[in-house]
UniProtKB/TrEMBL annotation:
Gene Ontology molecular function terms on file: zinc ion binding
InterPro entries attached to this UniProt entry: Znf_MYND (IPR002893)
Upper taxonomic lineage: Eukaryota, Fungi, Dikarya, Basidiomycota, Agaricomycotina
Keyword Metal-binding among UniProt keywords: yes
Keyword line: Metal-binding, Zinc, Zinc-finger
UniProt domain MYND-type: residue ranges: 234-281
Superkingdom, taxonomy of origin: Eukaryota
Protein's recorded name: MYND-type domain-containing protein
Amino acid sequence: MPHMQDPKKRDAVIGYIRSMRKTLCDLQAQITHYAAPFFAGNNLQRRWMSATPAKRGEIILAGLVKACTATASMHMARWYCEKELRVESHRQNGCLFLDLLEEMMVQNPTAGSPNMPTYISNPVWDAIVAQQASNATIPAKTALKSHLADRNMLIGFVVHFALCSILDIALPELYSTKSKPDKPTSQDTRLLEKILPVAYNEDTVKAMEKIARQVAKGVYAHQREEYARGKQECETCTKPNDTTTKYPHCKRCWDTMEREVLYCSSECEKVDWKAGHKNECGKLLQLEELTPSTSDHSPRIGPPLPGFKRSGALLFQVSALNQLSPDYEYLIRVPNAYVYFAFPHPPICAAVRACRDKALSTGDRRAVAMLAHFLFVVCTIDPRPQRIGVDRAVMMGQIMDEFQFPELWCAVAEMAHRMCLDAGRRPALIVDAGVSVAQWETIPSEAWMDVGIVPVPGS
């Protein structure tokens, strides 16, 4: 079957997928950076939901127009995002954008751009991806990955555009091609419609292979056009050239594959060589090489465990904890600042940190309730938090919002009941940590906690 027989064209598609994935990772990191502070306190939700339906639709439509006129691939990707980017749906349901935004946000924000982007879940696409491993040919897999990259890139651009619009942030400038993207032909329409059925059948595979050849041809021609126009950027640092001079490229990659691997300096070339270019220099790129590398940066609080997705507000808590002193166990918002809670006594510090880390990494309801109850108890016993502006009801509301736990008050009441029944009146968090009654009674209340005010990181 003559599907992408030209290795240079297939190589160009895989290079395109890599580039799109990296761009999407950077875009999602920026979305998280912008959105997380505003999710804390529900400011972002209030701004978006207070906009009129017409205004919400106008913003989404403007983002679509800007993204779809940037490149032909974004223009065609509208076909893959009918459920997520239907303007009328955003007019009627403001929560649709907020859900997309939270799904786009990076779950480990202080580790920089992720190695692999978050893909927006969709029943149709999820079903196709789940079955591709055993049912699809290599060209079909390549085509599917290309479509997924385009689909999520378009959603990311529109979400980013809408976020900047409602937060009054300078709008991003998308790269625009000189030529207008072609409108889908009737043949394109028929091919794209074949991707949509949930059933992953032979017709779907054939349709993907046809589109794969079209994508390969378009990407390959686009790369040649870009080189002729002189628009380049460094493979390592992504620094763009000024179009008056051309960056030198990797000679072996160009001679064997006509693949543009450009470097602004010999230093960047050496860095990229050590980072992995030596393993693929002059060789045909393979799909299995798209596996992301492991980040060298390991924040104190890492990503959540599989099955738990942090809310926007909780992402901001995690980001702040990772940026501030490692002695801080939790942060409560007050106007323009945070009140930090630290516990210098080793048994209490170990107990609080273990419970907190479990709550932050798994969202475990019991751990969240024990942590919230313990903070409530120390704020009741020690007057210092209230003197510097911590309202216990507001504190509970913050934790409820961060963990999306509307039954938190009931769960905390249950923890308070357990404390009343305990012989040493120990909070449940202390009991579960194995701190004995004798140990607990020897700790003076003033040694429980250190509390103070710190500015919001990045403010």
